[in-house]
Amino acid sequence: MASANTAQAKTQFGYRRHPDQDRSGANVAEHPVVVVGAGPVGLSLAIDLAQRGQRVVLLDDADRIGEGSRAICFSKRSLEFWDRLGVGDRMVEKGVVWSVGKIFHGASQLYQFNLLPEEGHKRPAFINLQQFYAEAYLVDRVEQLPEIDLRWRNKVIALESRNDGVALTIATPEGSYQVHASFVVACDGARSSLRQMVGAEFAGQVFEDQFLIADVKMTAAFPTERWFWFDPPFHAGRSALLHKQPDDIWRIDLQLNPDADPIAEKQPENVRPRIERMLGHDKFEFEWISLYKFQCRRMARFIHGRVIFAGDSAHQVSPFGARGANSGLEDAENLAWKLDRVLRRLSPEDLLESYHIERSAAADENIRESTRSTDFMAPVTKQEARLRQAVLSLAEDTEFGKRMVNGGRLSVPSVYDTPLSSGDRDDWRGGPRPGTSMLDAPVTEPGGGSSYLTEAFIGQGTRFTLLTFGNGADLDVPEGVGSIRVGGEGGLVDAQGLAGKRYDAEPGTAYLLRPDGYVAARFRNAARPILDAALARASGLN
Amino acid sequence: MALSTSSNFAKPDDAFRAIVEAHRGLTDAQSADLDAALVLVLANHIGDLDVLREAIALAKRRTLDASQQQQQQQQ
């Protein structure tokens, strides 16, 4: 069911022989980083590493970008990451911007929510974009970066861990060859073969309910909102989801009975009547139909010696909450700067342990949230169903009931409880505490141009950056650390006062941002010794 | 202990009676529906997760004690 809509994005790539394939024995090629899997996570990680000056070999066992739309919701946080990689604009231009979700019970609307109810952010709460577009734009960016060596139809078939790295055996259409890598990052998806090669377990909870996903093409006047139904008239007793994508494609997700026959349910002639009932007409075509059950599970450890797991290879969640691809992208951004520092010997290898600590805690949070959503949609016991029914009926006339209805809690960046953070020593009434992702706010450049804090962060080179607020004494910023000044002479102008408000700023307030945009520490008055100590801590140096 | 287990009603009998009367004339299924809604309404009114957890633990211990006693009587 490949679509004509994919024509504008390049999706087919050729295998090319690489000189590494002619080397063997003691002469095999040595690479600092090999990333396995050119999906959104592997591509984004490779770009981030390359922009930091690392050479990256990126392997993929296919020669094309995957069919079907798969992931569709990309979060504000992911868009901010992609801005740092130089692909954010393309994603947003193509994507469908949305922030409003509506929840229906039966034929009536229970409530609606807005995921980004305030102004003054560069990026929206979410865009919907077919995964293949995201991948195609990332591949285009990869092709601009000579540091990345992207090899299609290169499949890792064996892995041998050594003290100083990993030996990989790679199969190609012209036979197999070996390379040696200081670090391997496995972004090879939920069925990761590298995970099996390191012998790691992938345990968790399997959900019995089956869901049918259909992407249909139609012109419709529905608003660009996420609509979720409990017990809709067109699909009695189950749940349903409708969501718009680019190119007049609509994602429809229908919960099936646990005992539904997967083969029969997937046949277009069986799917069509359900969707006709849902839409009230038959003027649509199928782009993609898939039936799935899902699991919530994660690896116990994301790091196995010099093999590091990121994205679906390390953790899997249910799709209700847009926590799959988005959390994988957060993994990539979390890992890239740390791996870069370790490869440059600026930080000890222990810094990577913080990747495991931070991202495995995030995986636990994502699994917890998505399990709760799934349990709410598909109650396990009779009493659970009764409690859910009580919530749905209380939601009709109480605010607390509405807030308890769980049709998916959408991905927000995790807050890390991490050894890289320096705890607050001063008094704060608000603002992002250490371990929190930076907040965006509109600012005006001294020359008058309008900008955002997230853009200023990119302007400083996406590295450790000190964000300081107005009128304080000029701070002596440590070498190698970027500086964003809001207020004061020559600083960015906080015309609307939003930056100051969001950061609970007073004159002299300073935030130390990590290269992934997370807050490492904050100070009311940043003296050099405490700033240096916070920087060392965030770099894994003590 | 965050949960108050001292007597909070001036007239405890009135409170018990109010709950009992709410169930009068209902089938078991309707009663179970009522209880489910009532638990959620009251839990939200309390609005304190620690209190809620202690209340659940206390209620659950009753249930377990009762089933153990039943088993012992059967032996």
Key terms:
heterodimer, A: 542 residues, alpha+beta, FAD/NAD(P)-binding domain, Glutaredoxin, eight-stranded mixed beta sheet, seven-stranded mixed beta sheet, 27 strands, disordered N terminus, B: 75 residues, mainly alpha, globular
DSSP strand count of chain B: 0
Strand content bin of chain B:
under 5%
In round numbers, the mean pLDDT of chain B is 92
User: What is the CATH top level name of the domain at 19-95 and 119-203 and 298-368 in chain A?
Assistant: Alpha Beta
Question: Please, how many helices of chain A?
Answer: 14
- The radius of gyration over CA of chain B amounts to 15 Å
Determine the mean pLDDT of chain A: 93
Query: Mind summarizing the main beta sheet of chain A?
Result: 8 strands, mixed
In total, how many domains does the architecture of chain B comprise?
A: 1
Number of separate strands of chain A: 27
The shape of chain A, in one word, is globular
- Percentage of β-strand residues of chain A: 25-35%
**Given the helix and strand composition of chain B, which structural class is it?**
mainly alpha
At CATH level 3, the topology of the domain at 19-95 and 119-203 and 298-368 in chain A is FAD/NAD(P)-binding domain
InterPro entries (chain B): DUF2783 (IPR021233)
Pfam families (chain B): DUF2783
Cofactor (chain A): FAD
Biased composition (Polar residues) (chain A): 1-11
